[in-house]
Design a protein that fits this description.
This protein is of the alpha+beta class. It contains one helix and three strands, in the order βαββ. The chain has one domain (11-83): 2-Layer Sandwich (Translation Initiation Factor IF3), CATH 3.30.110.
Length: 93
Amino acid sequence: MNKGEEQRPMPADIRYVKLVTIGGINPNAPLSEEARKQQIMLLNRCLNDYPKGIILSKDISIGSYMVGEHQLTMERITYHIGFPRKPMWDQGD
């Protein structure tokens, strides 16, 4: 490891878990491109900013809907990001 590099936490060091959702499965309220970009920016911040988090697991939800004669399939992934402590930039619950 180079001087100044932060070591990623090991699962035993995890004290805070943040859930980060990418996508949506509600056909009545489709996710805008801007909202999707915001979700991805949050995931990247969790994995790259200080303190760096690690992906502990992920949940995948898939919804299949009939809209008229067309079948629509939507997906939502929720990442469980572990941190050694709650990041100061995280203003969520």
